[in-house]
């Protein structure tokens, strides 16, 4: 029933006792009948791109629900009963108007994927750390200023997207995310990084562009599996010598900083293919020195 112009669902929808998949995306629904909770066998419910402002508490009665799509609505809150969806694996809530999440979100023990981008979240409940099976967490384009320490308990997390928030610091517990492969912290207000960042041994992609970083911890050199590091548009004047330990690094973005000189240890970056140094304060002599240190690397000193 997707891509119609449905404005209401009849209460009789609850009589479809054997229904497993219900597609209602791209309609004009503003509310759902309480009877939606009677669909005990429902495994997938797609309500994306409607005009929903609230969900009935009865949503928590969908005990077999595995996938719930609620992106592109007008939800400002979620009912506590959302935590009763014990079999839920995937939850899409992007592009709503959420300012908070209920503590009960932490009861979704089987959840693998949680999309919360493009909302108005200012904080996360500590209970977020109880999502022990979570692998993907998207929080891009919210208003987060801090992360709870409990974020470090997400031991199975592989991708954490926090771009375009208002983060000023990171908890030391971020270093406990042993399985993290992709971390996006771009477009925040970070001035420092915790030394514990170096404990992310499986990290491959680290995005830190458009922050207020002036220095980097030496522990950055412990990220042995890092393939891409983006530090563009910060206030960096130096880079630690330990950068040379990033033996798998292929792409390094350092443009739009305040570099005047580089450590000779960058020549140890044997796999580096692209180095972006546009819009720094490098002299002609220093540029030539960098070229000699990295003869096989494509280096960008000017915007092309």
Automatic annotation (TrEMBL):
Extract the InterPro entries matched here.
Leu-rich_rpt, Leu-rich_rpt_4, Leu-rich_rpt_typical-subtyp, LRR_dom_sf, LRR_domain-containing, LRR_R13L4/SHOC2-like
Q: Which GO terms describe its cellular component?
A: cytoplasm; plasma membrane
Coiled-coil annotated residue ranges, if any: none
- Reply yes or no: does the keyword Ribosomal protein apply: no
Q: Which SUPFAM superfamilies match?
A: L domain-like
Q: Which residues form the Disease resistance R13L4/SHOC-2-like LRR domain?
A: 36-116, 151-226
Which Pfam families does this entry report, sorted A to Z?
LRR_14, LRR_4
User: Where does the UniProt annotation locate this protein?
Assistant: Cell membrane
Protein name in the entry: Leucine rich repeat protein
What organism does the record attribute this protein to?
A: Leptospira noguchii
Q: What is the lineage of its organism?
A: Bacteria, Pseudomonadati, Spirochaetota, Spirochaetia, Leptospirales
């Amino acid at each position: 029933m997707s891509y119609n112009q449905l404005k209401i669902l009849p209460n009789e929808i609850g009589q479809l006792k054997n229904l497993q998949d219900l597609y209602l995306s791209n309609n004009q629904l503003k509310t759902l009948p309480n009877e939606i909770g009677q669909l005990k066998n429902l495994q997938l419910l797609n309500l994306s791109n409607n005009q929903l402002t609230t969900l009935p508490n009865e949503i928590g009665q969908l005990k077999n629900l595995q996938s719930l799509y609620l992106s592109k609505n007008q939800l400002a809150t979620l009912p506590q009963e959302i935590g009763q969806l014990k079999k839920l694996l995937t939850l899409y809530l992007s592009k709503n108007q959420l300012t908070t999440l209920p503590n009960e979100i932490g009861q979704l023990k089987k959840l693998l994927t949680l999309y919360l981008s493009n909302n108005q979240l200012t904080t996360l409940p500590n209970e977020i750390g109880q999502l022990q099976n979570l692998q993907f967490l998207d929080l891009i384009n919210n208003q987060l200023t801090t992360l709870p320490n409990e974020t470090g308990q997400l031991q199975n997390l592989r991708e954490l997207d926090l771009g375009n928030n208002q983060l000023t610091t990171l908890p030391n517990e971020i270093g406990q995310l042993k399985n993290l492969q992709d971390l996006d912290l771009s477009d925040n207000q970070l001035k420092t990084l915790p030394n514990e960042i170096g404990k992310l041994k499986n990290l491959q992609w680290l995005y830190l562009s458009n922050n207020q970083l002036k220095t980097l911890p030496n522990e950055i050199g412990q990220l042995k599996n890092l393939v891409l590091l983006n530090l563009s548009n910060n206030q960096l004047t130096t880079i630690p010598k330990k950068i040379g330990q990033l033996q798998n690094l292929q792409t390094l973005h350092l443009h739009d900083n305040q570099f005047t000189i580089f450590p000779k240890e960058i020549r140890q970056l044997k796999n580096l293919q692209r180095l972006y140094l546009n819009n720094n304060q490098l002299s002609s002599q220093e540029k030539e020195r960098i070229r000699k240190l990295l003869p096989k690397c494509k280096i960008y000193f000017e915007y092309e």
